[in-house]
Amino acid sequence: MKKLIILCTVLMLALSCKKEQANEAPKVAVVISTLNNPWFVFLAETAASNAQKLGYDAKIFDSQNNPATESDHFENLISAGFDAILFNPTDADGSVANILKAKAAGVPVFCMDREVNADDAATCQILSDNYSGCVELGIDFVKTMKETGKYVEIIGLVGDNNTWARSNGFHSVVDKFPGLKMVAQQSGDFDRNKAMEVLETILQANPDIDAVFCGNDAMALGAFQALQAAGKADIIKVFGFDGADEVVAKIEEGKIMATGMQHPEVMAEYAARYAHEYFTGRREFPQRIPVEVELVTKSNADQFIKK
Question: What's the average model confidence in pLDDT over 199-216?
């Protein structure tokens, strides 16, 4: 009888544990290319916050712009039983394999901001309309420069589709004006310090440039620092892309010319909501959802200043 009571107790405990496990909230991972940029920190925290508001456990993982670190995250997340991944990829091609591993394990992946070169990997990709946003920036650049001058372009990560969508959108306008001449194009890896160093080197060979177009606002701030150090911040015009608070403030002050305002809060909200809908039974999602980018200049910067 004593053994029977012990056996029944063990069985009840086991059943209780299984019931608790069954009632556990799904776990959502937010995997971000880098947290060494306030814009991506905001994207990560907003995605995690949205998932938590919907009742899910959410944890942020930093890939440090390193594809190998990103791959390790995916391996660990799949092993740890995470139920969905809200993902900001490090590489348009290299990240596909990681998404496919998750897909094979039954874990949906929702890309935010950065695209991967596959239509059968991610459950959905929520992306800024980078090309159109930089068409608008290109138009403003031409007007500001009065269709003439020498300029430098600092692009982002070479393996990121956003880099080329932004560059191509910009050049689709600017290249039509022969008076505007690009004297250098180099990668700043979307990094503030790298962009500062790149422009410092470029200025040594091209001290007479008139403008710098940067593929994101972190690099625009790095470029501005380089120009300040060279005593040329009031002469050479800087253009960025992202809508970072610090850049918007500098646009209002007339120190930076313009940026493209992305909406990470929209991308984060979509990703978390779609994960929720996946958990509740939905399986069909659009492969790509474009999110509008707005042009920010001195004339409207006050509308984008966070009060």
Answer: 98
Helix extents (H) in 105-261: 130-145, 161-174, 192-205, 217-229, 245-252
Asked whether the predicted pLDDT for residue 84 surpasses 80, the reply is: yes
The b-or-e profile of 65-104 (16+ CB within 10 A means b, else e) is bebebbbebbeebbeeebbbbbbbbbbbebbbebbbbbee
End-to-end alpha carbon distance in the chain: 71
Banded pLDDT at 34 (limits 50, 70, 90): very high
Kindly give, in sequence order, each residue whose CB lies less than 8 Å from that of residue 174, ignoring residues fewer than 6 positions away: 138, 141, 142, 180, 182
CA 244 to chain centre: 12
Q: What is the pTM assigned to this prediction?
A: 0.85
pLDDT (0 to 100) of residue 15? 40
Between CA 45 and CA 40 the distance in angstroms is 8
Q: Which residues contact 43 (CB under 8 A, 6 or more apart)?
A: 32, 88, 112, 113, 264, 267, 268
pLDDT score for 307: 65
